[in-house]
Amino acid sequence: MSAWEVVIGLEIHTQLATKSKIFSGASTAYGAEPNTQACLVDLGYPGVLPVLNEEVVRMAAMFGLAVNATVAPRSVFARKNYFYPDLPKGYQISQYELPIVEHGELFITDADGNEKRIGITRAHLEEDAGKSTHEGLGQFSGIDLNRAGTPLLEIVSEPDLRSAQEAVAYMRKIHSIVRYLGISDGNMQEGSFRCDANVSVRPRGQEEFGTRTELKNLNSFRFVEKAINFEIERQIDVIEDGFDVVQETRLYDANKDETRSMRSKEEANDYRYFPDPDLLPVAIDAAYIEAVQQTLPELPDAKRRRFVDEYGIRADDADILTTSRSLADYYEDVAAATAAEAQGAANFIVGDLMGALNKAGLGIEDSPVSAAALAGLLDRIRDNTISGKIAKEVFEAMWAGEGSADEIIEAKGLKQITDASAIEAIVDKVIEANPGQVAEYRAGKDKLIGYFVGQVMKETGGKANPGQVNQILKQKLG
Length: 478
Ligand code: ADP
Ligand code: MG
What we know:
This protein has helices at 40-43, 54-66, 164-181, 221-240, 286-294, 300-311, 315-321, 325-337, 342-360, 371-382, 388-399, 405-411, 420-433, 435-442, 449-459, 466-477; strands spanning 4-15, 70-71, 74-75, 77-81, 91-95, 101-109, 115-127, 131-133, 142-144, 151-157, 193-203, 213-218, 248-253, 258-264, 274-275, 282-283. It is elongated. The longest helix has 20 residues, at 221-240. It starts with a strand and ends with a helix. The chain is α+β, with helices and mostly antiparallel strands. The protein has 3 domains: 4-291, no CATH class; 298-412, no CATH class; 420-477, Arc Repressor Mutant, subunit A (Orthogonal Bundle), CATH 1.10.10. The strands form 4 sheets. The protein has a 9-stranded mixed beta sheet with strand order 2-6-7-10-1-11-12-13-14. It has a 3-stranded antiparallel beta sheet with strand order 5-4-15, with no helix packed on it. A hairpin with a 4-residue loop joins strand 13 (248-253) and strand 14 (258-264). Bound molecules: adenosine-5'-diphosphate and magnesium ion. Adenosine-5'-diphosphate is lined by residues 7-11, 156-159, 198-200, 209, 212.
């Protein structure tokens, strides 16, 4: 066990899936020509006024309820003042002293397989800034303000995480929750879900936290893990060499797999926060919260527990199958349509189907094999028409669009041989062709049974029922 204990807190920025921006009517659609989706409010023109998009309030309230937090009856927008080219107003509208969500929690599975509670300090609403671009512009930089004013929910955790792996588990859980709720598409390539990781180390047993650094804008689970692990090692080296960790903001360079200093850490008072006089406080009453509560879907943890109880599948499979609503729905569709065991269906989806989807870079929504089609395949394993091994071959053909399981089994002649007399004939042939091995087997070399099974399978193109082959071989050789 290391002499150092790691302490991590995450700030996750989730882009809310509204059609228009948080304080203006401009579109939030991704990928448009630069500066075609920024209106006067987003451009920070003098004299224009922000108007709050009610949808963001509803989404933030949904999140708050989903993580067992307090949804504040009164929250206040504040100006966070700083100067940057992609921020034309000279301030970002955020929430500071009175955020809309406070005191939440969620549960992750730690390295020992135990459930661990992670506190959520707060979640507040704010607007995103624009983007600076440098590519293909020679000595100039470009500013694209399409993203300016896009609604964000910033979710801040307590410093409860103790390893990079726990940080990733927490981040995955938040990702899964916001997607279940439908409040964010969670698209990490497009920056809709990104995270800053605050990392410090302290001698094991010390109560006081060490000095932290903040790693900015990590936009994949893999980078979060790598950046944190690099930073832990770096901080330990700094301290063991007799220096102090400097509180600062650092940037992760994925190409070099290292973090480097970006700027010294700013303090809250550097931002001169004050309530935005252009916006009224947000007042939410109990009836509103109750109405939002009614719209909450079944969440990942509840679904996972239900899958274990209702289908009797393994907890780790239930965990994987409930990471997204669409995958969970797919599983339930298959389970409802097949006579096969629920665990068998889970195995095939988690193993073969998800393997093929990952390899092709596809999501479950784009699976070329539908839930009904997969159920058709599982039924043929279940009724012994094909073996589990041949099923993989049939699945590949289904994936390639060659038809249903039944059509492929028929066209390729893959039907399992279960006719005992046909198997016996082949067994006889194999025994006759291998007198040496037969003698060795009879002299006590039991292992050779595998060799005979292999020979029979070879003769039948893998189609003989493996159980029957074993039984007939043993009987004839014995
Ligand atoms: P700021 O507003 O400056 O970013 P906060 O106090 O709001 O700072 O904390 C931001 C994040 O940093 C939170 O997720 C918190 O849990 C985490 N954090 C605070 N102190 C430490 C520390 N010593 N080590 C690791 N994480 C920390
Ligand atoms: Mg911060």
